[in-house]
Each structure stands twice: as C-alpha cells, then as structure tokens.
C-alpha cells in the first residue's frame, strides 16, 4: 500500500529528541514514503544520534537560521542530497531566558529581537532559501502554540508565535501563485526539549487536564506529527494560510 507522501522530498528542522514533534513528523514522513533530510543547530551530533531511531537512515546538515551563510548554501546542499524539495517543516523556536518566566515587562529589546528572529522571521528566511528547490510547488508547515491567549511563563514567546502566525498568512498570500502552500499546526503542550525551557510548563500544561475535550497526553507527540504529515501531503491541495489545531480541542472552549 502506497503512502500519502510517496515520492515527496522533505526538509525537516527541529529534530532534537525522540520526544520532539519534528521527530515524529520525520518518522511518519518516512513511513508514508517520503525521502527526508534533517537540519540541526547548534549540536548536529545530538540530532544524528536521535536520527538513528528513524525507520531509515537520514543525513543531518548543520543549519543556523540566523546565519546568512548557512541559508545561502542551503539550496546547493539540499539539491545535492535530494535533487529538489516538495515540502519543508519549520519546527524552530527560541527565546533567551530573560524573555520568559514572568519577566515580560523587563525584557530587553535585544532578547525580544532574538526571539522574533529565530521563532518568526526564520519561517520567511528558511522558506525563501528553499524556494528555488520547489520548482513544482510545495508545502511549508510550521509549528505554533496558540497565540490568541497568554500563557503562564511563556511571555515573549507568545508575541513571537503571534508574529509567526501572521508571517505564515502573508507568505501564503505571496507564495500561492507559485503553488506553495504555507500552513501551521498549533499543537498542545508536549514534554519535549523545548518544553524544558519554559518556566511553569507544568502549570501551563495542567490547563489541558481541565479543559481539553479530548484526552491529552504531554508524552504523545504523534498526533501533532500526523497533522504535519497530512498538510505536507496532496490531501490538502487548496489549503493555505491555515492554522490546524492539534490540541485536543482546547482552542475551542472557554472554560
């Protein structure tokens, strides 16, 4: 039986641990027939170690999305490995510690700028670096955490995710004529490496214990991975500028 990504070539960022949503997107993508390439920063060896747990061997390339030289050489590296691209997964987010944990009113602009650059602007810069590889069109899928609400301890990552969500809509508008779709998956809280950097993560995630219509497990990244793979596939050929919530339904309830 053929998979929904048969013949697709996908670049996936953000595979840090087996608990990463991106890891499960990569695993499912391979199982569904895709050929994938992983990026890593700042420790490619960490990603290489985790990648050994994927169904098939995969190459890992170093990529700092804030480094112009890395972005400029990306097209050549990916073309040598895959020949082109049909999809891109943006699973990148970072904020300095002083931008989180209840320090919202005292955070410096330098730290805010870093959060915005890595977490939001990189969706645009990474996609544009890959655009020449998507000669027949493609699908860009990013990860967000619902930016319509404030979250305990999340602080400046909230505005950064709001910027990411707005960026995805503008990109959907401007890349539509090139048959490139741009969508986001808004995932519920997952106990990944990214979660460890969020002060009060346990308090934040406890919201799901009280509000989620569907049972939610912070130890199960696969549902979000499935959402990513679905959006990478041809099963959403006319969907762009969308945010698909894979959060157990919390976004739909008020309390």
General description of the model:
The protein has helices at 21-31, 44-51, 68-82, 109-130, 157-175, 193-196, 201-211, 222-232, and strands at 9-12, 35-40, 60-62, 87-90, 138-144, 180-187, 243-246. With 255 residues, it is an alpha/beta fold. The chain has a single domain (9-247), classed as Rossmann fold, CATH 3.40.50. Strands 3-2-1-4-5-6-7 form a seven-stranded parallel beta sheet, with helices on both faces. The chain is globular and about 45 Å long. It starts with 8 loop residues before the first strand and ends in a 9-residue tail after the last strand. 44% of the residues are buried.
Please specify the SSE layout and strand pairing.
Elements: E1 9-12, H1 21-31, E2 35-40, H2 44-51, E3 60-62, H3 68-82, E4 87-90, H4 109-130, E5 138-144, H5 157-175, E6 180-187, H6 193-196, H7 201-211, H8 222-232, E7 243-246
Parallel strand pairs: 1-2, 1-4, 2-3, 4-5, 5-6, 6-7
Helix pairs in contact: 1-8, 3-4, 4-5
Separation, N- and C-terminal Cα atoms = 43 Å
* Helical amount: 25-40%
Q: Hey, roughly how much beta strand do the residues contain?
A: 5-15%
Might you state the CATH topology name?
A: Rossmann fold
Question: What shape does the CA trace take?
Answer: globular
CATH class: Alpha Beta
